[in-house]
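ok so i was messing around last nite and threw this chain in just to see what happens. nothing serious, just curious
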Amino acid sequence: MDIGQKVKVVRVRDRVSDSVAKRLGQEGTVTQFKMVDGSGVGVVVEFSDQFSSWFFEDELKQTA
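result:
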């Protein structure tokens, strides 16, 4: 994945807030990467309404 790339949220691993859960199936843009729990990389995604959150890479699917 690259910054500026479009991605779709295809699943969420953990319990999340309603504001994040409603993003399931939505498309957004990768804005940055984030180190998570010392062993992985998270992807920060911004959606069309300016809301952003981070996801694990396996929770996202690259789109066109």
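not much to say yet. The beta strands are 6-9, 27-36, 40-46, 52-56, 60-62.
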